[in-house]
Design a protein that fits this description.
Elements: H1 9-28, H2 32-46, H3 54-69, H4 73-91, H5 96-111, H6 115-133, H7 138-153, H8 157-175, H9 180-195, H10 199-217, H11 222-238, H12 241-259, H13 264-279, H14 283-301, H15 306-321, H16 325-345
Helix pairs in contact: 1-2, 2-3, 3-4, 4-5, 5-6, 6-7, 7-8, 7-9, 8-9, 9-10, 10-11, 11-12, 12-13, 13-14, 13-15, 14-15, 15-16
């Protein structure tokens, strides 16, 4: 009989750290399948460290966040919930880590359409952060950002706007007018204005956010590409297709250079540019972009992710415009099947 090799705690720590670092690296490159394997390996190792070990908490949150990213909300929810219960046991109910755990779980609820549960947790999280740090702390601004985002998702933009403005004021006061966190909050405010149809209010907000990000990161950075992409979307809504095309192409070039050609954010901009071309009836320009975006999303997320559904729906609309009804119907059947599967896996209240 072969002798079993005993593993020391130091070796286990090293293996856990290597698996976690590799998972993060794979995630950053868009290799989601390999990232999942490494996160699961780290989780398995962390279970051996005990329920109150920080490595277990870290692995729970990492795996939960990963599942959230790929749209596996039914996988994400119990992991975030378990992490929250552990945090409450370690720190008590009024602790910043508990507030962060509430925020994480609220995001999952929001993605599943459980908006009332999400709102309750976001408000509880905000109350804890204000009580611990005071009303003008940057973490309060983060909680306000999250609550405003939820209200925007619920279509309650009139509720979202003052909350988002308060977040910006806190960040300007605590971090300075030109901090990247201010730019991120400005981006959110611009999206609220855009959703309200306040396009002339939205544009200067985007321009200020872009200026801050270019100074902080340089002109070729993923955050810069996101703002440029959002500005392209605003131009599209305003009917300025020429400027929208220019901005989408600029965002696409930056994302391909900084993130690689097969990253999901590249697919997002490809989809946006394809929609613009479809609107202009440039169908032969739009189709290869839809096809490429769909392949990137399927490779990154698998067949059943919301991004894949979005790509399929957009492509089906294009095929109908091109009088290719049979192909469009096949895509619509796939969309219906995926949505039915998602409803079973991620039931709303």
């Amino acid at each position: 009989m072969a002798e079993e090799k005993e593993t020391s705690g130091t070796e286990e720590w090293g293996e856990w750290e290597v698996a976690t670092d590799e998972a993060v690296r794979q995630l950053e490159t868009g290799s989601y399948g390999e990232a999942e394997k490494q996160f699961l390996m780290a989780m398995g190792l962390a279970e051996e460290f005990g329920e109150t070990d920080e490595r277990l908490l870290s692995s729970l949150k990492n795996l939960a966040q990963f599942y959230f990213t790929i749209g596996n909300y039914s996988g994400s929810e119990p992991l975030f919930h378990r992490a929250l219960v552990i945090e409450e046991g370690l720190h008590g109910e009024k602790h910043p880590e508990v507030a962060l755990g509430m925020n994480n779980l609220a995001e999952v609820y929001s993605a599943q359409g459980k908006h009332e549960d999400a709102e309750r947790l976001h408000k509880m999280s905000l109350e804890i952060i204000e009580e611990v740090h005071g009303p003008d702390h940057p973490d309060v601004a983060l909680s306000l950002n999250n609550l405003a985002y939820l209200y925007r998702a619920m279509g309650k933009n009139s509720n979202a706007e003052p909350i988002q403005k308060r977040a910006i004021l806190i960040l300007e006061k605590s971090q300075g007018d030109n901090h990247p966190d201010v730019a991120a909050a400005l981006n959110n405010l611009a999206l609220i204005y855009r959703a309200q149809g306040k396009y002339t209010d939205s544009l200067p907000i985007y321009e200020r956010a872009l200026s801050i990000e270019e100074k902080a990161y340089g002109s070729e950075h993923a955050n810069v590409a996101t703002t440029i992409n959002n500005m392209g979307g605003l131009c599209y809504r305003c009917g300025d297709y020429e400027e929208g095309e220019r901005l989408f192409k600029k965002s696409l070039a930056i994302r391909e250079k900084t993130l690689g050609p097969d990253h999901p954010e590249v697919a997002l901009t490809l989809n946006n540019l394809a929609v613009l071309y479809r609107t202009q009836e440039r169908y032969s320009d739009a189709e290869p972009l839809y096809v490429r975006a769909l392949e990137i999303d399927k490779k990154a997320f698998g067949q059943d992710h919301p991004n894949v559904v979005n790509s399929l729906e957009n492509y089906a609309v294009l095929l109908k415009k091109m009088d290719r009804e049979a192909e469009a119907e096949e895509l619509e059947k796939r969309v219906k099947a995926i949505k039915e599967k998602q409803e079973i896996q991620n039931p709303a209240n």
